[in-house]
């Protein structure tokens, strides 16, 4: 299979004849950390369970599995919209460390967020710098709020610059951490063949970088993937954005992390429906001291920030891939 064929297969529109397997496929198109796709789906007669796949953990960047449960929430949000389009109403609950979607028949509902699913992507490129209207900001704010979750939209340039400082400081600390860098490199896919072989990970072209043979890319990496170069890139990318979105949960626990994921995915789908792009800049969240400092700066009291995203109008980049549905479905409970 070529990379182009894999993209067409991964991001194909949902067909009614796919049934529940199509719903799972659409769920896997959700945003997730490092494109690790850290989920397992168990299909029951009246439910779908989304559980963490701990074999895909990233202990250096995500030691408490925060990003895993956020990723499960993102997948659950996609699942809700895909199921509705096929005439299934879902009720989500958190049980025994997993997200359970109870399903019942209902009239089909095709929403704008459902239509955005195969078009959403994390666009790690510079945007055009144009501001977003107040009406669009209100739509994004509504989509990004949820049960026990608030989204703070930052469009003031001075505040954006302060948040950029946190991003750069976090990126600097991470790039100086050998364990973080080894973990990141393990999820890098340097060319089309590697991306298709695994159907996961961070494919170079999805970030606007060239595809290279591994034998060439690996030794070149220390010279092109530098602390100063990455920090300059993050500053330029945030400066080119219309704003930043900070997602904040009322509590720092797994059920709320799932809700953060749902809110984040709704935000991304709404942005896509409005013709906007988005990308994560989560470095301040991934360094505990910086996370607390950011909470203080944002006057969050006892709450902590859970995710940081930038948004704005930007280009279309090559697509990331997803593993086949058969690879993410677990055998019965």
Short note summarizing the structure:
Helices cover 45% and strands 17% of the residues. The chain is α+β, with helices and mostly antiparallel strands and 333 residues long. A hairpin with a 2-residue loop joins strand 3 and strand 4.
Quick tags:
alpha+beta; 14 helices; four-stranded antiparallel beta sheet; 333 residues
List the helices and strands and how they pair.
Blueprint: H1 3-10, H2 19-27, E1 39-43, E2 47-52, H3 66-85, E3 88-95, E4 98-105, H4 112-116, H5 134-143, E5 149-154, H6 157-175, H7 178-186, E6 188-189, H8 192-198, E7 202-203, H9 214-224, H10 227-239, E8 243-249, H11 254-273, E9 277-280, H12 283-286, H13 288-297, E10 304-312, H14 325-328
Helix pairs in contact: 2-3, 3-11, 5-11, 6-10
Descriptive report:
The chain has helices at residues 3-10, 19-27, 66-85, 112-116, 134-143, 157-175, 178-186, 192-198, 214-224, 227-239, 254-273, 283-286, 288-297, 325-328, and strands spanning 39-43, 47-52, 88-95, 98-105, 149-154, 188-189, 202-203, 243-249, 277-280, 304-312. 45% of the residues lie in helices and 17% in strands. A hairpin with a 3-residue loop joins strand 1 (39-43) and strand 2. The protein is built from 14 helices and ten strands. Helix 5 runs antiparallel to helix 11 (254-273).
């Amino acid at each position: 299979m070529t990379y182009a064929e894999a993209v067409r297969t991964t991001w194909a529109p949902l067909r009614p004849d796919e049934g529940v397997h199509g719903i799972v496929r659409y769920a896997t198109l959700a945003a997730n950390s490092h494109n690790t796709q850290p989920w397992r789906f168990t299909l029951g007669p009246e439910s779908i369970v989304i559980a963490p796949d701990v074999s895909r953990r990233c202990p250096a960047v995500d030691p408490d599995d925060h990003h895993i449960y956020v990723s499960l929430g993102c997948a659950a949000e996609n699942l809700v919209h895909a199921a509705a389009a096929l005439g299934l109403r879902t009720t989500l609950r958190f049980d025994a460390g997993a997200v359970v979607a109870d399903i019942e028949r209902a009239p089909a509902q095709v929403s704008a967020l459902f239509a955005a699913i195969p078009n959403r992507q994390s666009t790690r490129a510079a945007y055009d710098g144009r501001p977003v209207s107040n009406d669009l900001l209100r739509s994004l704010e509504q989509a990004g709020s949820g049960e026990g979750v608030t989204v703070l939209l930052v469009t003031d340039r001075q505040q954006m610059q302060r948040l950029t400082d946190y991003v750069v400081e976090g990126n600097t600390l991470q790039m100086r951490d050998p364990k973080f860098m080894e973990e990141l490199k393990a999820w890098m896919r340097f060319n089309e063949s590697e991306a298709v072989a695994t159907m996961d990970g961070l494919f170079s072209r999805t970030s606007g970088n060239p595809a290279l043979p591994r034998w060439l890319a690996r030794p070149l990496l220390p010279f092109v993937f530098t602390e100063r170069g990455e920090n300059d890139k993050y500053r330029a990318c945030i400066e080119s954005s219309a704003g930043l979105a900070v997602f904040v949960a009322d509590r720092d626990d797994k059920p709320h992390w799932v809700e953060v994921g749902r809110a984040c995915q709704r935000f991304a789908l709404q942005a896509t429906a409005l013709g906007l792009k988005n990308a994560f800049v989560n470095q301040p969240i991934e360094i505990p001291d910086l996370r607390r400092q950011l909470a203080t700066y944002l006057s969050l009291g006892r709450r902590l920030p859970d995710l940081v995203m930038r948004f704005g109008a930007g280009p279309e980049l090559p697509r990331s891939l997803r593993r086949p549905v058969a690879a993410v479905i677990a055998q019965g409970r």
